[in-house]
Amino acid sequence: MDSTTGIFFWGFLIVYGIVMFLLSPKTVSLGGFFKGEDKLGRAANPWMITASIFIAWIFAKSVTNAANMGANFGIVGGIGYAMYWLCIPLTGWALYRLRRKFKAAGMISFLTEHYGIAAAFCFSAAILVRLFNEVWSNTSVVGAYYGASGSAPFIIAALLFTAITVGYCCWGGMRGSIITDVAQAILFAVLLIAVLAWVVPQHSLADFATSGTWTLGGGVDFIIGAGLQCLSYGFHDAVLTDRGFICEEKKMLKSFTVAGLLGFVAIVLFSLIGVHAYLDGMSIAGSSAPVVVAQSLGIMAFFMMAVIMIATAGSTLDSTFSSLAKLTARDLPGILGHTPKMNPRIIGIIFMIVFGIVGNLPMIMGADIITATTISGTMIMGLGPIFLLHGVVKPTKVGFQLAFWVGMVLGIVDTVAPAALGFMDIGGGSYANFLGVNLWGAVACWAAYLIPGLVAQAAEKRAGIEPAWKGLSREELAHLDADAKRREQQGLDLDPEDLAPTGA
């Protein structure tokens, strides 16, 4: 870019940082910093949570991957990547069930209570990997609009963007993240409409709808593989699950459902940018579809695309840092029942700064951003049965460990030596290995969780032991609902955590 354009782009990045600092609250309570409460200690508005989930999942990495899939496979690729957003309603339903029947007050505390300390630490490690991936994969996308991968402008832009995000997160924590997410969601929606108005008229709707081929080799292998990963993917995303415990259960479920469906539609629409490249035969080798298409449409379209990427990357990154602060300052010490002497906010801030530095190392080394989604999704496929089948069969520590480590080992092997799992391939497409490993891996993980549970359940039945692991009965839930309705009619505030067992 020339000097005038450069001033424009770098100037916007500075202005963006100033606006985010102004929007983010400067002083929040510990409840606001870690749970998103307002100054009066009230839970975040459900519609704010909906907007936060929506934009936090429309990350720069994801919209870039969606457009790239559209460029490679037509509309089939766009729908394939959008499949991941269907895991949001599924995750919301699972959290709703765990909160209702088992009075779960958080993912870590739930696992500690039902599966033990080792399970909670394993899960926390998976979350840390996820949060680590979110840093470099999103800053890489922002850097790409300022220079080629590995160049000085690329790295400087990515690091400056990281510093801005860490800065306002240190002030506002999760409350600040939710507030800025609303602004970022509005900005994304406006600019997406503007960019699509530029791109879509260049082809007929029929051309977009019929692009690509509905075969395994044409991208259907990715659609099925992503659908399989939806059974577990949402559970290892602290950005998502943290928001599952900060408002009343039914409001939370509605927020998750609306956010997931809106996200699915938004990703398919954004993928049309890549489908345009597919229809025009544009080459995206060594770059990304949004960059190539935006450059072909002129400097203004390129700038608008850069703003979209900065807004979506910022929404994900600030949510990542706020979740990291909660995990390190609250959840991990809580596993051991330890209360740190240091102010938990200071602990969270320290880890945010460290992750902001270390988390950018893969970006500097030029890692491929699609791997941040597909690899982590394979590693944690054992989480699906743990959270979806809890209470359906007897939960066991052995079942947790087997399901978790079967998925983790398959994911690691698929990363370092994918050829070793070539015997699992299904079809001959680009994602034959992705589909095969996730299909057979899911079968193995679900069996690994179910079998120990069924064996323990049968032993319990033979011994005449009444099962205490099925959670609250329908009658007990109806009683709690009636009590909640009575309290509401009397004008009393009912905190869902009031009904949680001590220490949950």
Offer a concise description of the structure.
With 504 residues, the chain is an all-alpha fold. Helices cover 72% and strands 0% of the residues.
In terms of topology, how is this protein built?
Blueprint: H1 3-23, H2 30-35, H3 46-57, H4 60-73, H5 75-82, H6 87-102, H7 107-115, H8 117-143, H9 152-199, H10 205-209, H11 216-229, H12 238-242, H13 249-280, H14 289-297, H15 299-335, H16 344-358, H17 361-365, H18 371-379, H19 383-388, H20 397-416, H21 432-462, H22 474-489
Q: Give me the number of helical elements.
A: 22
User: Which class of secondary structure composition applies to the elements?
Assistant: mainly alpha
Calculate the mean pLDDT score and round it.
87
Low-confidence stretches: 494-504
**Shape annotation:** globular
Instruction: Please state roughly what percent of the residues sit in beta strands, choosing from under 5%, 5-15%, 15-25%, 25-35%, 35-45% or over 45%.
Output: under 5%
Span between N and C termini?
A: 55 Å
What does this structure look like?
Helices cover 72% and strands 0% of the residues. It has helices at 3-23, 30-35, 46-57, 60-73, 75-82, 87-102, 107-115, 117-143, 152-199, 205-209, 216-229, 238-242, 249-280, 289-297, 299-335, 344-358, 361-365, 371-379, 383-388, 397-416, 432-462, 474-489. It starts with a helix and ends in a 15-residue tail after the last helix.
